[in-house]
Design brief:
Length: 641
């Protein structure tokens, strides 16, 4: 990689390992808040940033502070305070992603609603980064389980939100317990007097960065979102393209690789489609745009930077295949449609963990984004029938088809067959082996399950656990009998018995600290698979098995083999008990496999309202919860920019 691949970020002075990660993530140019904050933070200056949510603040402070992190010092060096546990999770995951090529960086997320045991274990490992909510951070400080003596930088993310939630006194208390020499970065969408007082008290001659909000959208653009459900994004986009009446379409993805993959998929399904990314020579990019203008292309799949300056009036639809990482990018993307007084359509694909960004976009644009259902199999089949019939009618030409007509007449004269049967056989040959229609019954079963109201997450997770204050008696418990290796056959998927499942083995287990949630999150992210379709999980000492839908695409399996969980690649392969790692079974004194049914672990937003108000009750001298962690997976991660 050369500096030219990420010119904007390279010019800010970021080191090569971080630039390498940004290139893989598809970040090609810094947002305004990043361009104005990163150089000052790299120099060690305090920064007072005023910018709307969703403008890329996470990368604005994470990248420069990662560059200043001392990896050989196993002690907290950067403390980031966030108003909610959801944001704390997002920031922690983002820092882990950005530090991919910086060996030795450990990140710990501490927040209310999570068991103390896992947090204490993480803190004992000496993470350089601690991301947490104010209440839980105070609790750990009072218990002596968090030491801020080596803190070199403190980040206050969404300070005005912490003020609104009543955490500002906690923030002041925490800052008073950090070294006076530490660097401070304070980011807030607004600057009320209380936040100004925090800045005046704790920041030293800060560089002030103010990003004016320009997020206004054309009211002639109808905005909708599809909540990513059981269908793969590619299948969803194909259905939308087959049922929407569009002239030309722009599809935005996050990475250069995705432009090729999505474009190839759509082209294989009959659409005239081309990719547009920074690796494609300028001459070919210009040629693709000219084809789009001339009606020789239906769809262009592009990254943000590759699409800059593109102005084609006939673009009627913009699809955000990957939700953008900031609100400005969203506005720029959908601005490709609704030109010259025309109406436009903008659709964004949203996963459960991305609903926060959807709300940020609505807040910044001051326009609601309505949810849209995925077109049904019946709707798709009706369109396919119309197009197929149209192709046949368009092909009727007496002169061009003269030779074929003679061949058909000869077939009919020599064979006792009906002329309609011959016509149907020719139509079948024209279609090929690929089915023309979607199975409507199977599709309706899938759709109806997506529409079914789900039992509240809290109730599902609690099950029959003892009430608070009860103790599980260990002394009378019978010893466990040795258990064999997991069976080789996959179990039926709960709620979707019609889906055929295959059992896979991954090269990560108990010894690596694997929990079901780690595995579900990685597969939901890397495999682009809704967690509702992730089946039984059994974790052994050195490996784990997981049931996934049969016929996973080769490209997806390739990504899953390389995906890393607990610091190790999954190396996923079809499970065969005879090939399981030696000594990793469950006989003898080894722990039995932990089983996890095929539940939906995707964060659908149910838990967000609980945020971290509960942190305030965690400050007293309560003892840490002594029961074992319930092993429930956390929400899949989000890599925020």
């Amino acid at each position: 990689m050369t500096d030219s691949t990420v010119p904007g970020f390279a010019s800010l002075g970021l080191p090569f390992p971080i630039l390498r990660t940004l290139e893989e993530l598809g970040y090609e140019a810094p947002s305004p808040i990043q361009a104005n904050s990163i150089p000052s933070l790299l120099e060690g200056r305090d920064v007072l940033g005023m910018a709307q949510t969703g403008t890329g603040k996470t990368a604005a402070f994470s990248l420069p502070l990662l560059a200043r992190t001392q990896v050989d010092l196993a002690a907290p060096q950067v403390l980031c305070l966030a108003p909610t546990r959801e944001l704390a999770q997002q920031v922690a995951e983002a820092v882990k992603t950005y530090s991919k090529y910086i060996p030795g960086v450990n990140v710990s997320a501490i927040y209310g609603g999570s068991d103390y045991g896992s947090q204490l274990r993480e803190l004992k490992r000496g993470p350089q980064w601690v991301v947490g909510t104010p209440g839980r951070v105070m609790d750990h400080l009072r218990r002596g389980t968090l030491n801020l003596a080596d803190i070199r930088a403190v980040v206050l993310d969404e300070a005005d939100e912490m003020l609104r939630m009543g955490f500002i006194d906690d923030v002041n208390w925490i800052l008073e317990h950090t070294p006076r020499s530490r660097q401070v970065a304070l980011f807030s969408a607004t600057m009320p007097k209380e936040i100004q007082r925090v800045a005046e008290t704790h920041l030293n001659d800060p560089v002030q960065v103010k990003i004016e909000s320009k997020t206004t959208t054309n009211d002639r653009i109808r905005q909708r979102y599809w909540f990513v459900g059981g269908a793969h994004k590619n299948d969803a986009m194909l259905r939308i393209c087959e049922t929407e009446d569009f002239d030309a379409m722009m599809v935005f993805v996050r990475t250069k690789q995705a432009t090729e993959e999505v474009s190839d998929f759509m082209a294989a399904n009959g659409f005239k489609c081309a990719p547009l990314n920074g690796d494609i020579p300028q001459a070919l990019r210009e040629k693709a745009v000219e084809k789009l203008k001339a009606g020789q292309l239906d769809i262009i799949v592009a990254t943000d930077v590759a699409a800059r300056g593109l102005d084609v009036e006939r673009i009627s639809h913009v699809i955000n295949y990957d939700i953008p990482s900031d609100t400005e990018s969203y506005v720029h993307r959908i601005g490709r449609t609704g030109r010259a007084g025309r109406n436009g359509e903008a659709i964004v694909f949203v996963r459960g963990r991305e609903k926060r960004m959807l709300r940020d976009i609505e807040k910044a644009t001051r326009q609601p984004i309505e949810e849209m259902p995925l077109p049904s199999a019946k709707q798709v089949n009706e369109k396919r029938r119309e197009r197929f019939e149209g192709r046949i009618l368009d092909a009727i030409h007496s002169e061009k088809n003269k030779v074929y007509r003679e061949m058909i007449e000869e077939i009919l004269s020599k064979n006792p067959v009906d002329s309609l049967d011959v016509a149907a056989a020719v139509a079948s040959l024209m279609q090929g082996e690929k089915p023309l229609f979607i199975d409507e019954k199977a599709d309706e079963r899938m759709m109806s399950r997506e529409r079914e109201p789900r039992e509240p997450r809290e109730r599902r997770e609690r099950g029959d656990r003892p009430e608070r204050g009860e103790r599980r008696e260990r002394g009378d418990r019978a010893p466990r009998a040795p258990k064999a290796l997991p069976e080789g056959r996959a179990k039926p998927l709960k709620g979707h018995p019609e889906v055929e499942m295959t059992r896979y083995m991954v090269a990560v287990g108990y010894d690596d600290g694997l929990k079901p949630g780690n595995l579900v999150g990685a597969i939901a992210n890397e495999g682009d698979l809704d967690s509702e379709y992730i089946g039984n999980i059994e974790i052994c000492e050195q490996f784990a098995v997981i049931d996934l839908p049969n016929g996973m695409p080769t490209a997806v399996m390739s990504k899953l083999k390389k995906a890393r969980v607990c610091g190790r690649p999954l190396d996923m392969q079809v499970y065969k008990p005879s090939e399981a790692p030696e000594g990793s079974g469950n006989g003898g004194n080894s722990r039995p496999p932990r089983k996890q049914g095929g539940r939906n672990f995707e964060d659908r937003g149910e838990r967000r309202e609980r945020s971290d108000r509960g942190d305030r009750s965690d400050r007293g001298p309560k003892k840490p919860h002594r029961g074992k962690s319930d092993g429930k997976p956390r929400a899949p991660r989000k890599n925020d920019r």
